[in-house]
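Structure first, sequence second, as always.
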């Protein structure tokens, strides 16, 4: 029993608790297919949105049906995909309707053939405020299930449409603890973009702590790996040192991907200006020869990384299958 009067809005979590129980049962039975990638870091400016958009486009281009959910008030994915201010942009309304009102979570449309989006935006501030309220209310409860159920609100909304897609990518705000916990409970595999600076590495360790919290409701959650961003491709010794440092931070929990993403400011600016990812601009005649050459190289980085990510996912799938068979 709670330590005080039961607030009315706690009762709304009974649906969430029932859905989370069902979700964990499916996991135990080996019937919960891993398809939700969580792109996350505790620090901003590490390439999170760029990685999410580029990976989403790459996977949709090989025929997969992809859903990109931006759990971020900044709405940077709209700039990456050229949807800002257009009919697909809703400022986070679809997410607010699902989380605050219990309505189905519905994509606003296709940003590319096979790539559906649920945008972020300023309206998510209301969602974040509600999530903090739910966490405070949950802290007053005695039951462990009641204390943690609020973390499954996004998981329930996303699970309702997960069968409609081959891949779901969650692009998660760096500064919101409650949104990060929601994403980690809803997700299956965690991708952490990181730079080499101490703040980025601190952000990685923050995610590791929240990862441990989320596994109380999501025991199948896995660390897929770390993506090194903003590197100088000619400084191979520096890259090796960066990867060694990050590997030490992870303590063997997940790999640092071999493919890094180079820093090319001119290409990044051109992408945001055009509302396209590097793979879509690699042959553009509108770019100067120098920028076009850099864009082609950056597109190659993302393409190689997408292949490596899917290979890592396949390895995790095989490991999970063997684990389920052993049980």
């Amino acid at each position: 029993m709670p330590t005080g009067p039961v607030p009315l809005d706690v009762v709304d979590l009974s649906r969430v608790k029932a859905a989370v129980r069902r979700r964990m049962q499916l996991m135990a039975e080996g019937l919960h297919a891993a398809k939700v990638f969580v792109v996350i870091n505790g620090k901003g400016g590490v390439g999170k949105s760029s990685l999410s958009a580029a990976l989403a486009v790459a996977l949709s281009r090989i025929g997969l049906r992809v859903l990109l959910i931006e759990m971020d008030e900044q709405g940077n994915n709209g700039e990456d995909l050229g949807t800002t201010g257009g009919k697909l942009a809703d400022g986070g309304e679809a997410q607010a309707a699902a989380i605050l009102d219990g309505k189905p979570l519905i994509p606003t449309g296709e940003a590319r053939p096979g790539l559906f989006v649920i945008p972020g935006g300023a309206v998510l501030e209301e969602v974040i405020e509600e999530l903090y309220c739910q966490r405070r209310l949950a802290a007053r409860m005695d039951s462990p299930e009641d204390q943690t159920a609020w973390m499954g609100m996004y998981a329930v909304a996303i699970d309702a449409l997960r069968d409609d897609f081959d891949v779901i990518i969650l692009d998660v705000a760096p500064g919101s603890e409650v949104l990060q916990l929601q994403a980690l409970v809803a997700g299956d595999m965690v991708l952490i973009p990181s730079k080499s600076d101490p703040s980025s590495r601190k952000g990685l360790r923050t995610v590791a702590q929240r990862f441990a919290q989320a596994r109380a409701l999501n025991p199948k959650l896995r660390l897929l790996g770390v993506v090194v961003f903003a590197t100088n491709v000619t400084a191979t010794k520096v890259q090796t040192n960066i990867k060694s440092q990050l590997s030490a931070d992870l303590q063997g929990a997940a790999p640092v991907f071999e493919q890094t993403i180079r820093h090319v400011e001119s290409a990044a600016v051109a992408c945001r200006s055009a509302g396209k990812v590097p793979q879509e601009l690699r042959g553009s005649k509108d770019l100067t020869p120098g920028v076009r050459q850099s864009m082609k190289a950056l597109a190659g980085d993302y393409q190689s990384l997408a292949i490596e990510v899917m290979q890592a996912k396949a390895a995790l799938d095989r490991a999970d299958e063997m684990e389920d068979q052993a049980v």
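Margin note: The longest strand covers residues 222-231.
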